[in-house]
Amino acid sequence: MGNWQLVGVMIVIGVLALVALIGGLALYRARQQKRLREEQALAARQAAARAAPKTTVEKPEVQRATVERLATWRAALEQATLERAAQDKAAVEQAIAEWAAAEQAEAERMQLRQAEVERRETEEVESRMRAVEEAIAEWVEAEQEGRRLAASTATPGSAAPKKTYTRTEAIHQQVSLHAEAVVKEIQELEYIKNRIQAGVDFLPIEFKQTVDDWKEGRVLRHSSFEDLKLKFRYKAYSVEDGYELLHMYNQWLAQQQRKLRVFVHLLGTEVEPSESIQAAIERMEQKEREKYLEMDVDVIFTLRDIRGTLDKLIEMETVLKELEAVCRKRSEQIIAPAWEAKGSL
Questions:
Q1: Is the dihedral of CA 213, 215, 217, 222 positive or negative?
Q2: CB-based contacts of 128: which residues, under 8 Å, 6+ apart?
Q3: How many CA atoms lie within 13 A of 237 on its CB side?
Q4: 127 contacts 258 by C-beta, under 8 angstroms
Q5: Counts for the chain of helices (H) and strands (E), in that order
Q6: Using CA atoms, how far apart are residues 125 and 138, in angstroms rounded to an integer?
Q7: How far apart are the C-alpha atoms of 243 and 233, rounded to whole Å?
Q8: The pTM is what?
Q9: pLDDT tens per residue across all 345 residues of the chain
Q10: Dihedral sign for Cα atoms in the order 166, 168, 169, 170
Q11: Residue 136: which of 172, 85, 102, 90 has the closest Cα?
């Protein structure tokens, strides 16, 4: 038993010695590694210290190179911007030049067309003037020839021959007939305009009354409010359309105004295309009154009737504007009637 105890003590001592040896080796290795790290850190600091002057020397050069690159890039950018602006300016100038050339060509074409239209209108007016003048001259000549024949074949005690008309009197008769025709057309136009306006103005009133009766169940009980609106849009469509008459009367009005120019011309005054009929009449009246005792009263009376006809034509222009407004209102009642915006009940 003593020996076994001795062996156990020796084993314990050996283990403790081994542990101590291992611990000493680990401590030695840790110290070696720590010293190595310190040496490496010192070497790194020394290398950094040695490299610092070189870096300090090279930094301005790097900055200069950077500045030069930025300057070069900025110059290239400005050059590209200038070139792009020049290209855009050239493109705009080219577009403007092409547009101006097209506008000039279109203006020249318009001038040519306008000149052609004016030439045709001038020829048409001159043709009408010649035709009216020739017709009046033939009428006066035939009238005078007939009176002469009647006077030469008259027997004693027979009725006295009718009055022979002068040229001015013959023109005055034509002016009077023209004035009567103008008055008649104005009355017709006024009647048509009033008829269309009555239908246009009465339609909203009729719609309101129908809706009130529909609410009370007295009419159209099986119809909806949308049905009523559609019904009255159809009724608006059935109102007489005056646009065709408006176009026709505008042309007729221009023809009558040209005819008045012909009458003034036949009385002995040239009427310039740019001159108004009123100015031509006043000029001829002044010219005729300057003759004093030799003044032709028939010319004055004829000019007065021409002025009266001109006033009627101006009145007709007002009626035509009213007709246009009525036609526009009728179209609105078809396309977008006032009652359409009321919505559903």
A1: positive
A2: 258, 259, 262
A3: 9
A4: no
A5: 6, 0
A6: 20
A7: 18
A8: 0.50
A9: 555 566 666 676 766 766 666 766 767 777 777 777 777 777 767 666 665 544 444 467 777 778 777 788 888 888 888 888 778 777 766 776 676 677 677 767 777 887 787 777 777 766 766 666 676 666 666 655 655 555 554 445 544 445 555 777 778 888 888 899 899 999 999 998 998 888 888 888 888 888 888 888 878 878 788 887 788 777 777 777 788 888 888 888 988 888 888 888 888 777 777 778 888 888 888 887 887 777 678 888 888 899 999 999 999 999 999 999 988 888 888 877 777 655 444
A10: positive
A11: 172
Are the CB atoms for 308 and 178 separated by under 8 Å?
Answer: no
Q: Which long-range contacts (CB under 8 A, 24 or more apart) does 183-186 make?
A: 183/312, 185/249, 185/252, 185/316, 186/312, 186/315, 186/316, 186/319
Token couple for 205: 């009133």
Give the integer Cα–Cα distance in Å for 123 and 149: 38
Tokens encoding 322: 């009213």
The first and second tokens of residue 7, run together, are 């062996």
- The amino acid present at 289, given as its one-letter code, is R
The answer to whether 245 touches 323, Cβ cutoff 8 Å, is yes
329 near 195, Cβ under 8 Å? Answer: no
CA atoms within 13 A on the CB side of 199: 24
Spatial neighbors of 163 by CB under 8 A, at least 6 apart, are 147
Contact 147, 162 (CB under 8 A): yes
> Token pair 């009133």 is at which residue?
205
User: 3-state class of 216 per DSSP?
Assistant: coil
Joined tokens for residue 270: 């040239």
Question: CA-CA distance, 259 to 131, in Å (whole number)?
Answer: 11
Residue 279 to residue 260: CA distance in whole angstroms: 12
Burial class of 175 by CB neighbour count within 10 A (0 to 12, 13 to 18, 19+): buried
